Amino acid sequence: MNELEKQHTLQVSIIANQLKTFYKQNKKVRIYHGSTNSTRTQKFQKDAVINTTELNHVISINVKEKYAIVEPNVSMDNLLKETLKFGLVPPVVMEFPGISVGGAIQGGAVESSSFKFGGFHHTCKEYEIVLGNGNIVTVSTYKNADLYWGTACSYGSLGVITKVKLQLIPAKKFVRLSYHRIESFNESIAMLKNESTKKVDFIDGILFSKELGIIMTGTFSNNQDLPTVTFGRAVDDWFYTHAEYITKKYNVWTELIPLEDYLFRYNRGAFWTGRYVFKKLKLPFNRFTRFLLNPLMNTRTLYRFLQAINISQRQIVQDLCLPQETTLRFLDFIDKTTHIYPLWLLPGKLGRKYDKLSPGYFKTKTKLAIDVGVWGKVKGNHSYLIKMNRDIEKMLEKLGGRKVLYAHQYYPENEFWKIYDKKWYNNLRTKYHANHTFPDIYEKTHVKEKYKFSVLKGLLNVLKSPFKLPISE
After folding, report:
1. Is 454 helix (H, G, I), strand (E, B) or coil?
2. Is residue 219 part of a domain?
3. pTM to 2 decimals?
4. Is the confidence at residue 456, as pLDDT, over 90?
5. Which CATH number fits the domain that encloses residue 151?
C-alpha cells in the first residue's frame, strides 16, 4: 500500500465513523467538498456535514488497462494533468476545470463526447461508497449494481462516493474542430443527428438566434497542419465570441485547438453567462474589457460569485434534456417564451436501462438525447421568473424530457415523482441505509424560498475565499 492509499484509507475511515454517529443520532447530513457548480444556494451546518475536501488525489493510473483510480474531489484540470502524463484522457471531460469527479457523477454531467460515451458516470467502472450507516461497499455493474446505477445523478442522497475507477482512452495533442453554419432550428437538429453517426469524437452547437447558429464537430489529431487557436490565456478571445465571429464569416471553417484548450474552451466566461457581470457593472463588452476582467472570468471564481448573488433567481439557468424527436418543438417554445440567446445544444446517448435518475432516461425510446442549455435573463419580477420556470417544466414533461437537476427545480412533490420512479428510489434508500442520514433528491434539489440578491455579498464572498464554500458555525 503506497502513501496515497494509506491516506485514502484513513480519510474513508474518518467519514465512515462520522456517518455511524450521525446514523445513530438519526441526523440528516450534507456532503461538503468545498465548491460547487450548482445554481442552488448551498447551506452547510458545521455539526451536520461530511467533509470530503481531502479526498482530492489521483491515486494511481493503470496504463496497460487504461483506467485511473481517483478520489471524488479531484478536479477535471488536475485529473487531466495526471492522465496526460501517460498519453491518456478520460472519455468525457467536463467543460469547467473546477468540476470534480464526484460532482460530475452525482450531477449526471455531459459534454461534447457524450454522443459517443454517454454521461461522465457512464465512463466510471466502479465506485467505493460509504453508506448512511457507515458501512463501506464497492459497487459496479456486477456488484451491488442497483446502487451503482442509482448513485449517478442522485446528488449525494444515497451515500458518499470515496473512490472511483475511471475509464481512460488514448489522447492526442489537438482537436481538429470544424464549424458548420446553420440557419434554422430544423437544420441544427438534423445536423446533430447526422454528425452523431459519423466517425467524429466531439459534437456540440450554439444557436445565436432562430436563424443563425453553428454545429461544431471535432476529431483527435496529432497533425499540426491547420491554423491553431487557443482559449486559455487572458489575451485569447472567449470561445463563444470566437465561434460567433466564424459563424458570421464562413459557412464551414476548420482549425486546430490544443486538447486542453478545447476541453476547457467554455471556462473563460462560463459559456456566455459571464457577460452578465459586464452588464451589471455597465461596462462595454469587448476584447479589451474581457482582458481586464479576466481574473474574475474563470469559472472557479465566476460561478462562486454568481451563486453568492443568487443569479439563478433572477435569470433562467437551466439544462433541459429531450428526445431528439421533440427537441425542435422545445426550441420553438423557448424562442417564443424566453427570447434567450445564445442557446447551447449537446447530443448524448444517455438513456441506459437502469439509469433511472439520468436526465436522459426517457419514457419513450430514442437514439439520441439533446441537452438544451438555456441561460439568460427574462423580463419580470421574481414571481414571473418562477412562473417561467414552471412553464418550462410543464412543457418539458409534455415533450418527454427531463431537467438536469444541478439547477433550480420548482416541481410540486407529486409532480416530481411522476417523472422519477419513487418506489425504486425509496427501496434503494431503505436497502442502503440512506433514509436516516441523507436528504432525499427532491429535498436537495427543490427550491422553497426566495434568496436575497446582492452583488456586494458576491464580491465579498469571492475575496474572502476564492475556492471554498462557507460552513456555518
Report:
1. coil
2. no
3. 0.91
4. no
5. 3.30.465.10
Rg (CA), the chain: 21
Which pLDDT tens digit goes with each residue over 258-291? 999 999 999 999 999 889 889 888 999 999 999 9
pLDDT attached to residue 463: 52
What is the DSSP secondary structure assignment for residue 113, as one 8-state letter? Answer: T
Q: Is 133 left (phi over 0), alpha (psi -120 to 50) or beta?
A: alpha
**How high is the pLDDT of residue 313?**
60
**Would you give the DSSP letter of residue 154?**
S
Name the residue range of residue 79's domain.
3-170
| Lateral strand order in the sheet of 402-403 | 252-258, 174-182, 212-221, 202-209, 343-348, 369-377, 315-323, 402-403
Reference 461, options 237, 305, 328, 281; nearest CA is: 305
Rounded Cα–Cα distance for residues 427 and 151 (Å): 13
Secondary structure (DSSP) of 303-358: HHHHHHTTGGGTEEEEEEEEEHHHHHHHHHHHHHHT----EEEEEE----TT-TTS
Each residue's pLDDT tens digit, 172-206? 999 999 999 999 999 999 999 999 999 999 999 99
Provide the domain count of the chain.
2
In the chain, the amino acid numbered 388 is M
Query: Of residues 304 and 381, which shows the higher confidence score?
Result: 381
Mean of all residue pLDDT scores within the chain: 90
C-alpha cell at 379: 423580463
Q: CA 209, CA 196: separation in Å to the nearest integer?
A: 23
